[in-house]
Structures are given as structure tokens and as C-alpha cells.
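Handout for the seminar on molecular recognition.
Each group receives one record of this type.
Step one: identify the two inputs.
Step two: read the structure output and locate the region that could contact NAP.
Step three: write two sentences on what you found, then compare them with the reference statements printed after the record.
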Amino acid sequence: MQKYGIIGWPVEHSLSPKMQQAAFDELRIEATYDLLPVEPSNLENKVEELKTAGYSGWNVTVPHKSAILPFLDVIDPAAAAGESVNTVVNRGGELHGFSTDGYGLEMAVKEAFNLEIEGNRFLFWGTGGAAQAATTHFALRDAAAITLVNRTHNKAVSLKMRLEQLSSGCEISALQRSESERLKECLTSVDVVIQCTSIGLRPDDSISMPLDLLPRHTKIVDMIYNETELLRQAKAFGHDAVNGSRMLLHQGAKAFRLWTEKDAPVEVMQNALKAVSS
Ligand code: NAP
């Protein structure tokens, strides 16, 4: 029996066990996928423990995506550039780290809007771990422009500097939320806005971004898996807008492929996600 799982703190809310177990069962792979709560102070020990216990691989979620890097043997160059790992593969005791979040978002954008990364303009509202991984992927995939807006502006500025080192062709800027005229001007040329803050997770959360500044043609992805108030209002205003469930699905499908070297049964995984989130 092979062993997989997801480490995070907290991690009980994760939908990945249902999605990944359904995929293993569909392909008749004898494997379990466990929820593995790991306190930040215990990360290094836990990584060693999982290796010794014979785990073939695991997913990594908040708050360990960057913190796990020093404990891995080989890091995929894109994951290293984004300083974020969400998938670990144990290859004979050697731990390899990857990030599949950017790919998940790429697929979500492609499926929802029939839009490629290359040549298009994106605005990321929030520059936490998920945005860091996604913007790295988008810069490496030749987005025409990436604009970063974050509550803590200096985090957006340092991400901008890192992205500029990865891509010379992509126009990268960091704007303050208070610069409404510059924001408005920038938003007129943006193809997709991606909401990557954690605002919207709770039902009583306010809306994180100024929808009134967005032209109606702007497409919106909210990384949060549920239908948020932002999405409800954006749709009412006429925007083409989707939640993060397809991103979750595709980041998971790519992790599954990295572990098993088999095509992931994406439809089965999607049905498993629907069953737990409805
Ligand atoms: P994170 O690293 O904790 O980053 C949180 C982000 O939210 C930061 O930009 C932070 O800004 C901002 N923020 C938090 N509270 C705020 C507030 N009150 N007002 C304005 N901004 C606020 O989290 P993450 O890992 O990037 O995840 C972000 C979201 O993406 C979460 O909702 C997560 O569930 C979702 N996600 C979805 C997927 C998927 O597959 N669909 C994958 C990964 C993440 P500061 O820098 O100023 O603190």
C-alpha cells in the first residue's frame, strides 16, 4: 500500500483527500491519502518522519509552502523561483519539490475564458503564497503584463523585483490600492483579474476589490473555492467570473501525475470535489 497525504496547519478543511483518494481508487492504485496536521515548529521533524515512514509523496499547504524548501533535496526551478512547493515526490529517499498551483490557475483560466497566458494581461489582487507561485508560472509562460496589488505594498514590490529577474518580456508593475486613478487606467487594459487574498472565505467577509473600477469586459477568477460575495456581485454587474474550484482540481491532477506518472482521472476527481463541496 502506497502512502500519500497533505501537510498543513490547520489542514482539516482540505478537500484534497476526497479528490486524490477518488483518483487512486479509479485507477486501482493501492494507496491512501491522509490529512497530516503539522505545526510550523515541527515541520523539519515531520518531513523526516514521512520519509522514514515510506510516504511516496505529499501535498503541502499553508503555512509550509515556502518553509519546506530547505528540507528538500531537489527543487524544480519554477518552484524555486516562486519559493513555493505544494507537491513533494519521494524518489527512493530523495525528496523532490514542485509547485502545481500556477498550472492549476492556468487551466482554470483556459477552461473558463478560453484564454492562454501568453500575450495576455493579468492583475493579481493579493500577493501571498498562492499569488507568488501563480505569478511566477505566469511570468515564465510569457504573460504580456502582470500587475500586483497588495494590502502590504512592500510585499508586492519585492515580488515585482523577483518576477523581473525571471522574465524580460513581461511588463510587471506594483500598484498601491489607494492609487485609484492609476488602478482604473491599468484595469482598462487587463484581461483577467485574479482575487488571491483570503478575504471571502468567511460568509460575513466584505468584498476585497473595488468592482466599480473594473470595466465590464474584465474577467475575474476568485481563488477561493466557494461562490463568494465578490463573485455574486461581479456576475450581477455582468462580469465573466469563476471561483477557484477548477484551479484546485487541476493543481491536484498535476500532483497526481507527478506521483504516479499516469494521467489523472480529472472527471472523477471533479465529481469527488463536487460531492464534498455541495
Ligand atoms: P497567504 O499566503 O496567507 O496570503 C494572504 C493574502 O491575503 C495576502 O496577500 C494578504 O495581504 C491578503 N489579506 C489577508 N487579509 C487581508 C485583509 N484583511 N485585507 C486585505 N488583504 C488581506 O494565503 P495564500 O496561500 O496566498 O492563499 C490566498 C487565497 O487563495 C486563500 O483564500 C486560499 O484559500 C486560496 N487558494 C486557492 C487555491 C486553489 O487551488 N483554488 C490554491 C491556493 C490558495 P498582506 O500581504 O497584506 O497580509
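Reference statements: The pocket of NAP is lined by residues 62, 101, 104, 126-131, 150-152, 155, 196-199, 201, 208, 223-225, 244, 247-248, 251 (CB under 6 Å). The chain has a mean pLDDT of 96.
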